[in-house]
Task: structure prediction
Amino acid sequence: MARDLWLVWLLACGAAWTSAAEPDLKKGVTDPAQADADFAWQGEYFGTLCVRGCRQNGGLQVVALGEGRFSGLFYPGGLPGNGYTGGAKHKLAGERVGDVLTLRGDEVVAKLQAGRAVSVSSREGAFWGYLQPLYRYSLTAGAPPPPGSIVLFDGRSTERLKNAKVTERGLLQVGAETVDSFRDFILHVEFKTPYMPLARGQARGNSGIYLQKRYEVQVLDSFGLEPQNNEAGGLYRFKAPDLNMSFPPLSWQTYDIHFQAARFDDAGAKTAPARITVWHNGVIIHNNVALENKTGGGSPEGPQPLPILLQNHGNPVEFRNVWIVDRSSPACATPAVAKGGR
Result:
């Protein structure tokens, strides 16, 4: 009897250890090795098609929604930042059965098979051509801090940050804010959203870059979605990005932000709004936008500069290579952080 109880206890402990080791897709995973089988199907595809007798490029973004379900967004002309110049996009949806995933929309059908190109056709069955997997990276990923800049995080020191927590892999977690306050600046941030296929909306890889703790540039897993003011790249609840340049989750992405603080007179009255230009993954998404007021839950506007905050929204977003050029000093040169939008 005692031996049987001991065996039951060992089996229970083993089950608990196994359960603890399993990745929690609801909370999000930060390592591709912990992702589910659907992760390999998610991504971007690009190619040249023959649509109703006309040759044109096309792009497809495939989004994992958990338990074999997927959505897709088809772009005529190519992918955002790589050929897509506007025009009607086509939403698709479908499920994976074995090694075949079929996505259907009102006009487009895409069929994915493991190890093969994506077959694209019309809803009526007319074959258009194939799309190949495409793995993109930001033009400013790994950008070195220019002379005169302040390194906020380089994978080692956190002396320029408060509430900083660093993972075993040397990545910065959410919740950190700068020790110093900044007025006018150029900020470079690299971030990675977690893989959370079962999450939706604001619960899917949420964080934010709070400039002066007043104005938020949203961080979110918005891959494969329409641009919105509360999605990735949005000036939160104020302005949507001109283009949704989100990469798939677990991809390194970049924000390059030029910020000029609001101006106030001696009596404390605002005389000029804050202005912001943002590049997302090397492509401009906000161009010299005037910020009418603080965004979302930001601190009230005022003449005093405040720190920069990497928002903790409860999701395991990670950061690396964070640096800033303080432009408040007239002697500070303005480096070229990102080369124009495409």
